[in-house]
## 1
Amino acid sequence: MAIDVRARVTLRTMEQFVAVAEELHFHRAAERLNMSQPPLTSAIRKLEEDIDVTLIERGNRVLGLTPAGEKFLEEARETLRQAEQAITGTKDVAAGRTGLVRLGYVGSSLYGRLPDAIRAFRLQYPKVRLELREATTAAQIAAIRAGTMDVGVVIPPLHHAEDVELDRFDSDRLCMALPKDHPLGKQGRVKLSDLSDEPFVLWPMLEGRGFHLQVIRLCANAGFVPRVEQEAYGMHAVLSLVAVGLGVSVVPESMSGFRDDRITYRPINDAGSEFELSFIYRDLSPSAASFVCHASGKEKYKVL
Amino acid sequence: MAIDVRARVTLRTMEQFVAVAEELHFHRAAERLNMSQPPLTSAIRKLEEDIDVTLIERGNRVLGLTPAGEKFLEEARETLRQAEQAITGTKDVAAGRTGLVRLGYVGSSLYGRLPDAIRAFRLQYPKVRLELREATTAAQIAAIRAGTMDVGVVIPPLHHAEDVELDRFDSDRLCMALPKDHPLGKQGRVKLSDLSDEPFVLWPMLEGRGFHLQVIRLCANAGFVPRVEQEAYGMHAVLSLVAVGLGVSVVPESMSGFRDDRITYRPINDAGSEFELSFIYRDLSPSAASFVCHASGKEKYKVL
DNA sequence: CTCAATGATACAAAAAATATATCACGGATC
DNA sequence: GATCCGTGATATATTTTTTGTATCATTGAG
């Protein structure tokens, strides 16, 4: 029976009651509701019958609310507000204005366009929560497949990852990082081949395999195999070791935004020094689509 | 336009969507809703059209919710819950199960049935808030007229108060209060006329005029005019002064529940020693009606 | 290849909401 | 005190919405 009652009392009924309760005048209320007075009168009466409670006191010519009417006015307002939120909230989600984006990124991307893209996105989509996690390209692919990450920022090429989509986001190139007191560091122009006999500091191959290979290949093209004397996890660690003179390294040019008095950066003009940063994803939630869309500047994405 | 949309999305629609979202199966959902499948299908489609958001992913033979659908499921559930509360809450108010009762009472009523009545009422109507305020009969009448009090517990008769309704609640009688070391206090039987020459402690006439007059009249019938030597506000104060020997007094018998080693109570058998405690009220809110109804044991009251 | 399951479509019937016209009542006005 | 205006109630017709019945289209399993 309770279910039956709820079925009969509609949002429209509540809207009508609120209008009458606020105006305390059937004609004015009907006008506000863009309807005529008779159906309004009967609607209110049916409402009272349905819930079996007198809500409006019909004293001669003056209307008043019973205590129950006051209560229903309050509750009906809240119900209407909630109903409206149901719709606007849903539209927000659909439009990607609300939601959660779990964003992964490779460490080096923090020195490119990504931070600015994040800042701009947060301004335009304040209700989207962003969860950021640094991870290697391989780890991001795994997380996206596992559904624990929505979007990743990685360095292509990807291997065995035909199931994830890829969108170019930023480009960068490799450059040399030299200790400032190193002979080459004082020299104006340095060629990559000049490093053939120098000890290298590099990240382990497990951390960013594709990127690692690109460095090796680049050196190979310059005619040598880099002698890796020291490995370190993370670009910052690599650079710290370069700073104290443990060796030279090849890092993304955007890392030169990371300043250290003991390090000198030198460009590499060899072909193959360029690399890209791309978004990867599989099923884009609307909010994740908003992010990729906004950051990559492309127009539309099919959302899940 | 937003208003238009809200007008089209009804509670029924939400109920239908919730059923489909929970079952992920149109036929089962329709069965649960006691309707057939085709109109359910079209209702959901119309809902999606109305808010212009895809809520249900119709993958071949398997249904799934889009992120927006998840959101709408959550919000629709909340809306339905709120709508149901609007009705049940209103019914609670109408039935007097919820609300506020501002109850006034004369001090002496605290030693009669009132405390028990309050306790029992609170057990049966836990959602009704009770505001208690001690006040004289006259003050209660004024407060009820002013609309700042719902129900009063007073000692009739009332004067110039034809506009308030009166309901007998409890009865009591007057008794003598004597200092224990007073000669009369040691005597087994005491007649009221024995007090004719004793100094009296009484409350001022302003505080409980009708009650005061009853004492005077009672003494007059016993053949004397009480010599009031000391006035004190409140029964407790009166009794305290009796306890220290400042005089004798006549107080409600129920006050003998207030024990003091220095006071002896003696019954008054004279006609006219009885008095009543009554509820007074004007417009009973449902919760106030519940209270009066419950306390006085009567069945039904017309509620405002 | 057929069958069962499932959602979509078309059309008809039922129910509900709303509009129009009118009445009934009460207080204000002259 | 008769009349009129403002207000809510009633009766009935019309439109809109919702629901039901019958049927089809697609898909995956045996």
## 2
Amino acid sequence: MTQQIAAERRARLNRARVLRAAVALADEVGIGPLSMRRLAQELDVVPMALYKHVANKEELLDGMVDVVIGEIDPPVAGADWKSMVRLRVLSARRVLQRHQWARRVLETRTNPTPAVLGYMDSFIGMFFAGGFSVDLTHHVMHAIGSRMWGFTQELFDSTAISEGDTPAAVAPEVQAAMFQEMSASYPNVIQVATSASHDDGSVVGSGCDDQFEFEFALDLLLDGIERLHQRDYSPTAARLERG
Amino acid sequence: MTQQIAAERRARLNRARVLRAAVALADEVGIGPLSMRRLAQELDVVPMALYKHVANKEELLDGMVDVVIGEIDPPVAGADWKSMVRLRVLSARRVLQRHQWARRVLETRTNPTPAVLGYMDSFIGMFFAGGFSVDLTHHVMHAIGSRMWGFTQELFDSTAISEGDTPAAVAPEVQAAMFQEMSASYPNVIQVATSASHDDGSVVGSGCDDQFEFEFALDLLLDGIERLHQRDYSPTAARLERG
DNA sequence: CAGGCAGGTGTACGCCGTACACCTCATGGA
DNA sequence: TCCATGAGGTGTACGGCGTACACCTGCCTG
């Protein structure tokens, strides 16, 4: 009975609801405009109410990351290490792509939450299961770095602009002039940027297939790692004898 | 004469001086505490005075990045592409290590400044000079990503904590308990983290040699790239026949 | 000597995170 | 049945942020 009444009123807040609302809000408006005040408003509550459920904004962000990580598929069983890793990374990538903000937030965490550690632990476990030494695994984890989460540090990718303001359309003749100028100053950049995007003449190579680029780089890395593993390479030994 | 008087008074502000002061301040206190107000104070000037020299804080940060990029060595002439790239990256790394904050700032730039484009252009030029096709260069640049700037996205590295607050020493017995707990929950992480740091028992593997890890990963990448180049591999062709 | 303009100032606004004291109301023991 | 308790929501306030806008000042040029 009292439950019913409570349900008719505003549902009671709890940590999970706060985090879910935060994730949803960030998905919608981006991480920049996500403030405690804005989130509170979304939950129809006064800002300070949130602090009964999260210690502060940092902890809120930690919690949001945990929610996101929870969406990554568990490792598929019974495959070789390489495909396990590959699939897991690509799963993480899909998740992080649903929550664009998560990349930046992940990067700014100062200490890992249990969920993060759990993911890393199971990630490392895939290499162990594949017969990697602790030592090689260590170096390999460094080499993979943030690619483990399914993203690369794409400096200045075109999608980064889409936070908030629209890029303010410019007249075609101005575009052309800019292109000319760029071609003169940065001929190599222009060549590379336009190589994969013959269809549209956009200056930043927005025509290029991010997913392909990601997999290309990932496979380059995995192939290199496989080669090391096959020849029982020990990075630490190599370093010692190099001196 | 008037010059002398001016020199006796506070030197006049200009964009370069603002940027240099900003870089110095960020070097000293970190990027977090760097506010327009704080910077103005450092320059013994009212906050709004800065806006006569930079449009807003974003532009200030852009300018700071440019200053940093200016410190990267130019490419060494007359070497093969691989060592040119390698040396350039390691030079960038040294610079970015002098300005720890620059990594984060670089990551948050939304559009590249001329200095950034210039660096990328000359970077791309090294591959062209090495006989790489435009196409392969494009993919290779993606694969290198932020490693071009001499950093990897080290999530949760121990250095990240050092912004501002000291980590508040904990009693050894508490440390031991934490270690026990971690070992139970994240056995793989613990193994890997402690593999390269037998000397000190710190939980986060702070004993590991970042520079070695970086070069290890860089070389893994460069070797992979070299292999592709030698066999005249065309990623785009590979993709077309696959797709 | 006059005028203009580059550059430094003062004030004020709206945002942010959050400390702290307070209120309210469901709940469980007497 | 009642009342103490404590979890959870509220209101107010503070200090910090970026920066808009009007203003002042003093050097440089004509």
